[in-house]
Amino acid sequence: MKEKKLGIVTLTALVTGNMIGSGIFLLPAAMARLGSMTLISWIFTSLGSLFLAFVFARLSQSMPETGGPYAYARMGLGDAFGCQTAYCYWINAWVGNAVIILAGVGYLSVFFPALTDPRFGCMAAIGLVWVFTALNLKGVYAAGIFQLISTISKLIPILFIAICGWFFFHVDYIIESANVSNPPMSTFGVITQGAILTLWAFTGLETATVPADSVDNPKRNIPIATILGTLIASGCYILGSTVIMGMIPNGQLQNSLSPFADAAQILLGNWGKWIIAGGAVISCLGTLNGWIMIQAQIPMAAAHDNLFLKIFARRNKYGAPVNALIISSALVSLLLFLTISPDLINQFKFILLMATLTALISYFYTPIAELILYITGKISLTRGSIIVAILAMLYSFWAITGAGIEVLSYGVLVVLSSIPFYLIVLWRKSKN
Question: Does residue 324 form part of some domain?
Answer without folding.
Answer: yes
